[in-house]
Design brief:
Helix content is about 45%, strand content about 10%. By secondary structure, the protein is α/β, with parallel strands linked by helices. The protein has an 8-stranded parallel beta sheet. The radius of gyration is 19 Å and the shape is globular.
Length: about 325
């Protein structure tokens, strides 16, 4: 099994020790948290900085299709867009990854051959996570065998909300081992965790268990990524690195659709954890529609005219 960060080996010896540690974390002040997230969201940036932010955001996107109607043709088209988002402007950055179900990994891998774009795959009975551990691990191994560079797993929210923290921790560790060399993103489904304190606790469980990224949401529930819940997670990765020297990435996913939204999150990153996270190795956007708006805004900065949705491909 993967090794727990040495500083925290003693807190994972039993359910009671892990619970004591998690409930001993500083409480989150909801009013203060939301006020800070809102204030950072009002920051404006100038044209040159905006152009940089747009390109940075494009490079951080996990371009995603997670529908029952996904076909090989749709995945190939998405992969082509990830590699060449704007065929009229070859200076446009590639996206970070294409994210698909495990059965579409091989198609995505073949379509992205020769590019720097990664293949990410949701696994562990996404999005509900309601399956036996051996089923979840088989899901992960299938995705990795097909060529996935990254695995996006979902935690067992039922176990977490029932206070079975050690079960959640053990599952993450098992998935980390099954992922091999693939980077592991751990999805909390923050909209189902009810409180900011729970989001902070889930963040620490994920990081102690060896997550390479912590991720807000599946995009399949009513409340997905928000500046406030992402701020909690950014503060957690900052504090974790201060204590252990280990850096963990953050991925807000679901509901981020416009350039304005993306820039708010980038400001949040810069002001909370700093430039070390302003790179697609450490920060991602889980999105399907965001890319089109970023491309339209990019074209507007270049030409002075707003092109409109007919000038970008439909996903």
């Amino acid at each position: 099994m993967p090794t727990t960060a040495p500083a925290f080996a003693d807190v994972t010896t039993s359910d009671s020790t892990l619970r004591r540690f998690l409930h001993g974390l500083p409480g989150v002040d909801p009013v203060g948290l939301e006020a800070r997230a809102a204030s950072l969201g009002t920051r404006s940036i100038k044209t040159t900085a905006k152009a940089y932010a747009i390109d940075l955001a494009i490079s951080m996107i996990d371009l995603t299709t997670l529908e029952g109607a996904d076909t090989p043709g749709k995945v190939r088209a998405l992969a082509a867009k990830a590699v060449n988002p704007d065929p009229t402007d070859r200076t446009t950055p590639t996206t970070a990854a294409v994210c698909v179900y495990p059965d579409m990994v091989a198609t995505a891998k073949e379509s992205l051959k020769g590019s720097a774009v990664k293949v990410a795959s949701v696994a562990t009975a996404f999005p509900a996570g309601r399956a036996a551990l051996d089923v979840k691990l088989a899901d992960v191994r299938d995705a990795v065998a097909a060529g996935a560079d990254e695995i996006d797993m979902v935690i067992d929210r039922g176990a977490f909300l029932a206070g079975k923290y050690l079960k959640v921790y053990d599952e993450i560790r098992a998935v980390k081992e099954a992922s091999g060399n693939a980077r592991l993103k751990v999805i909390f489904e923050t909209g189902e965790l009810s409180t900011y304190d729970n989001i902070r606790r889930a963040s620490w469980i994920g990081m102690i268990a060896g997550a390479d990224f912590i991720k807000t949401s599946t995009g399949k529930v009513a409340v997905n990524a928000t500046p406030a819940n992402t701020l909690v997670m950014l503060e957690a990765v900052r504090d974790f690195r201060e204590q252990t020297g280990v850096q963990v990435g953050v991925k807000p996913a679901g509901g981020i659709r416009t350039t304005k939204d993306a820039i708010k999150f980038l400001v949040l990153v810069n002001e909370t954890v700093g430039a070390d996270w302003l790179d697609n190795h450490w920060f991602r956007f889980g999105a399907s529609s965001l890319l089109n708006d970023l491309l339209m805004q990019r074209q507007k900065l270049a030409t002075g005219r707003y092109s409109g949705p007919d000038y970008v491909t439909v996903d």
